Amino acid sequence: MIKKLSLTTTARVYVMMIVLYLMSGLMEKNYFSTEHIMQLLVMASFLGILAMGQTLVILTGGIDLSVAYTLNLGAVIVTQMTVEQGGVTAVVTALILGLVIGALNGAGVVYLKISPMIMTLAMSSILKSATYVYTDGTPKGAASDWMKYMVTGSFMGIKIGILVWIVLAAAMIVILGKTTYGRKIFAIGISPSVSHLSGINNKFMLISVYALSGLFAVLAGIMMTGFSGLSYLGMGDALLLPSIAAVVIGGSSIMGGRGGYVGTIAGTIIIYILSSILTVLDMKDAGRQIIYGLVILAVLFMYGREKKVRV
């Protein structure tokens, strides 16, 4: 029954995405061009990868507010270390750091019994300060050529950044829908106590989910660095709220246990179509954040009302 409802919700999200895209195309004819679609999907790939981790965490009933500065710290480490030790070493170091940061978030939630919101908010504050200290206020270095190619290069007319997102998205959908690991994530989100009594190691699962969130945040930072060619302070700030909005708009329950990454993909693209519309309307960044917040509240209200009706 839950699966059936989830599919229905996901279908509605995709219909919403198509309608919004047609609206944006009517406002600006250039939005129907292949070049614009390609550019939109490249930009959406950064948020899409960031939202992978957020989807996993939200499905367990948690939330990760540290993704923005995990992304930023990973990006500045990559650019600065690339100059001194080469791009491969820099990327591997940053990805390991992302795993460690996420694991610490998970350990705080599991062992210190700190709520996910407070734990990840505190971690975000620590990472923000660490980023300023590490860069001395001015990030140095630049992305290597192969990092730039991995985002802006093309294969058979499709940007490689989009292909990376497609491959990772396919893996995420299979993991959540076809593996025991994925089923355990849903089980924890539905009822942690029941999942524990069923023999699921809740502590390991939660720590691993937050660790993956940190990993995906750094990966998104590396992709953004490859796209822009450099890192800068605050480069993840504008993606924090959209990373949550993409998951919620995609139909995943903010309480956990229902949803999936298929919906998050549509939610991510909707965010960027909405951004294109707001660009046409000349909406400033502050106004966009307000719009994203209102969209989250509207979707939560809609899903909450729908649940009451069905109960």
TrEMBL record:
<keyword id="KW-1003">Cell membrane</keyword>
<feature type="transmembrane region" description="Helical">
    <location>
        <begin position="36"/>
        <end position="59"/>
    </location>
</feature>
<dbReference type="InterPro" id="IPR001851">
    <property type="entry name" value="ABC_transp_permease"/>
</dbReference>
<keyword id="KW-0472">Membrane</keyword>
<keyword id="KW-0812">Transmembrane</keyword>
<feature type="transmembrane region" description="Helical">
    <location>
        <begin position="89"/>
        <end position="111"/>
    </location>
</feature>
<feature type="transmembrane region" description="Helical">
    <location>
        <begin position="261"/>
        <end position="280"/>
    </location>
</feature>
<protein>
    <submittedName>
        <fullName>ABC transporter permease</fullName>
    </submittedName>
</protein>
<feature type="transmembrane region" description="Helical">
    <location>
        <begin position="155"/>
        <end position="176"/>
    </location>
</feature>
<feature type="transmembrane region" description="Helical">
    <location>
        <begin position="7"/>
        <end position="24"/>
    </location>
</feature>
<dbReference type="Pfam" id="PF02653">
    <property type="entry name" value="BPD_transp_2"/>
</dbReference>
<keyword id="KW-1133">Transmembrane helix</keyword>
<feature type="transmembrane region" description="Helical">
    <location>
        <begin position="230"/>
        <end position="249"/>
    </location>
</feature>
<feature type="transmembrane region" description="Helical">
    <location>
        <begin position="286"/>
        <end position="304"/>
    </location>
</feature>
<feature type="transmembrane region" description="Helical">
    <location>
        <begin position="204"/>
        <end position="224"/>
    </location>
</feature>
